Amino acid sequence: MYAVSEEGGIYLVEFSIVSLKEGDVSEERVAVRVDRSGRPVEPSRFQSLDQAISAAALALLEAADAVEAELDRIEYGLESDGKVDPLSVYNAAYLIHTLYGHSRSLRSLAARLRRMGLVRQRTYETARAASRRIDALRRALFDLRLLHLAQIQNSINVSMKRMTLVSTVALPAILISSIYGMNLSHLPLADSPEAVFALIFAVTAAFAALVYKM
Q: Which GO cellular component does the record give, naming just one (predicted)?
């Protein structure tokens, strides 16, 4: 929750400091009560509201660096035709969308606090930079998904080609076995199963060689 409220000249500012831990987004909920100068009126690990908002923005930038490194790793695997776990792509998408929500909320909160004179312009610029950085990651994620879908489609095409080749090569064997399966005594080699199997093998091998050369 990102919000600011006022009561009796004291502002209550609520926001989250986000980090990545073990591949997931970790949120530290922070609530700071400050006076009109932005100084905490209660014991706090932050000396000012400006410092607290700046810490939240820097944490977002650090998380964005970690996600960008993961995107680079996935992209390298896709471009080198390596095997990429689809879950890694979906997890990266989850991380980016989660960070995107936090970055937009923090930017909006920082802009409001800047207008109220509770944070400096530099702190607002840091929050805006974090938001823009994560926007860029969203665009990179879109390109990565297209690359991943292209790899999946290519894998499907290769599988279909193999199945088609196997079916095509098996046609002569199916045809010959169907003819000799009718138990017609006047067919050539009808009395010699070994010869029929040899014929099937020879025709199939010749047909496979023909298909291979095409």
A: plasma membrane
Q: Whose structure tokens read 């987004």?
A: 25
Name the CA radius of gyration of the chain, rounded.
33
**23 closest CA partner among 131, 125, 98:** 98
Work out the pLDDT band at 111, boundaries 50, 70, 90.
very high
Please give the structure tokens belonging to residue 3: 């919000």
What kind and span of H or E run contains 9?
none
Helix/strand/coil for 3: strand
Distance CA 110, CA 126 (A): 9
Read off the pLDDT of residues 58-101 as tens digits, 9 standing for 90 and up. 999 999 999 999 988 888 887 777 777 788 888 989 999 999 99
Our measurement of the distance from residue 136's CA atom to the centroid of its chain's CA atoms, rounded to an integer in Å, reads 14
Q: What is the DSSP letter of 82?
A: -
> Are β-strands 3-7 and 24-34 bridged in parallel, bridged antiparallel, or unpaired?
unpaired
The angle formed by the CA atoms of residues 29, 46 and 113, to the nearest 5 degrees, is: 75
Reading the block at residue 72, the tokens are 């680079």
The sign one gets for the Cα dihedral 102, 105, 111, 112 is negative
Instruction: Sketch the domain layout of the chain as residue ranges.
Output: 48-158, 160-213
